[in-house]
Design goal:
It contains 13 helices and twelve strands. By secondary structure, the protein is α/β, with parallel strands linked by helices. The strands form three sheets. A seven-stranded parallel β-sheet has the order 3-2-1-4-5-6-10, with helices on both faces. It has a three-stranded mixed β-sheet with strand order 7-9-11. β1, α1 and β2 form a beta-alpha-beta unit. α1 packs across α7 and α3 runs parallel beside α4. The longest helix has 19 residues. The radius of gyration is 19 Å and the shape is globular.
C-alpha cells in the first residue's frame, strides 16, 4: 500500500512512517522544509513537498496514494482558531482527492475535544460543537466514497523527542522555581506513548471502519499532581498548589489545559482492532530522566512560540 502521510517528519508522524515501512508499506511524506525532506528521506520514505496551506500539494499527494494518514497540525495556541481552520480545509481537500475510491483516510483528533457522557471519555462520545478545532466535523464531510476513520490522541503523547505539554511544564518549573498543579491536583490526564500510537495509526489505516472513532490511550487518567511530583523530584523544586485564579498567571497558555479532568478509555478500540499499548506509561517515561535533559525542554520552548 502506498500511504501519503502529512506531518511525516514530526514527533508522531516520524514514527508512523517507520511503523508503515516496517510493515511493508510505501510512504510518501509531506515536507514543508529542506530539513523535513531530509528527515523523511533518511527514514526511507519518498518526499512530497508542500504544506497544510498549499491545498494543491495535499490534493496531488492524496490522489496518488492508496491511503492517507493526516497528522499535521499547526500547534499555535496563541492563534488557535486560524490553525484549526487550516486543518479543516486540509481534511476536506484530502477527502475530495479520495472521493468515490473507498480508500482509507485517517484523521487525527483529540480526547480533549469530547462531550464526556460517563466517568471516562469513550469512542462513542461526540466532539464539543463549540470547540475551534473541527477535525471530526471535517472528516464527516470528507466521507463521500472514502473510508474515513478518526484517531483521537490524548493531551500527552510522550516519548523521546516530545515537545508538547510535559516538556513545557518542566521548562516552566525551571523558570518559576516550583512545580505546580491546580487545586487538589486530582484532575486526570490520559496519555499514550508515541510508539503505541504509531502502531494504532497503522491498524486503523489497514482495518478501520468507515465513520468509526478510535482512541489511542495507554494511561486512562494520571492525576496531574503525580506529574507535578515527578518534576519536583527531578528538578529539586517545591511542588505547590495554585488556585484557578493563580493558575492563569503561573501557567500562561498552559492554564487552559492543566486543570482539566479528562480521563479517556480505549476499551472499544482494543476490542475492535486487537490493539494493546505495550510501552511505558507517562510516569515511568518521566522517571527515566530524558525529559529533564536541557535540549528536550529547549525544544519545547521553541515549539510553542
Amino acid at each position: 500500500m502506498r500511504v501519503f502521510v502529512t506531518g511525516a517528519s514530526g514527533f508522531i508522524g516520524s514514527v508512523i512512517v517507520r511503523e508503515l515501512i516496517d510493515a511493508g508499506h510505501k510512504v510518501l511524506g509531506l515536507a514543508r522544509s529542506d530539513a523535513a525532506a531530509a528527515s523523511i528521506t533518511a527514514a526511507g520514505a519518498d518526499v512530497h513537498r508542500g504544506s497544510l496551506e498549499d491545498l494543491e500539494s495535499l490534493r496531488s499527494g492524496a490522489a496518488g496514494a492508496d491511503g492517507v494518514i493526516h497528522t499535521a497540525f499547526i500547534h499555535d495556541f496563541s492563534n488557535y482558531a486560524p490553525a484549526a481552520e487550516k486543518d479543516r480545509r486540509a481534511i476536506e481537500t484530502l477527502g475530495a482527492a479520495l472521493a468515490g475510491s473507498n480508500r482509507s483516510l485517517v484523521v487525527t483528533s483529540g480526547t480533549l475535544l469530547l462531550q464526556r457522557q460517563g466517568p471516562v471519555a469513550t469512542e462513542e462520545d461526540e466532539p464539543i460543537p463549540s470547540f475551534p478545532r473541527k477535525s471530526e466535523q471535517a472528516a464527516a464531510m470528507a466521507s463521500r466514497g472514502v473510508r474515513v476513520s478518526v484517531l483521537r490522541l490524548p493531551p500527552s503523547v510522550h516519548g523521546d523527542g516530545d515537545h508538547g505539554f510535559v516538556p513545557a511544564l518542566i521548562k516552566l518549573a525551571r523558570e518559576k522555581g516550583e512545580s505546580a498543579y491546580v487545586g487538589d491536583g486530582l484532575n486526570r490526564w490520559p496519555a499514550v506513548h508515541r510508539l503505541d500510537a504509531a502502531h494504532l495509526y497503522r491498524l486503523v489505516l489497514e482495518k478501520g471502519s468507515a465513520g468509526a472513532s478510535y482512541h489511542a490511550i495507554g494511561d486512562e487518567g494520571v492525576p496531574f499532581q503525580n506529574i507535578a511530583e515527578v518534576i519536583d523530584r527531578r528538578l529539586h523544586v517545591p511542588v505547590v498548589s495554585k488556585s484557578p485564579e493563580q493558575a492563569a498567571q503561573h501557567f500562561g497558555w498552559l492554564a487552559h489545559f492543566v486543570g482539566v479532568d479528562c480521563p479517556a478509555s480505549s476499551k472499544l478500540t482494543e476490542e475492535k482492532l486487537e490493539w494493546q499499548p505495550k510501552q511505558p506509561g507517562i510516569i515511568a517515561d518521566l522517571e527515566r530522566g530524558t525529559y529533564f535533559e536541557p535540549e528536550q525542554t529547549a525544544h519545547a520552548a521553541q515549539s510553542h512560540r
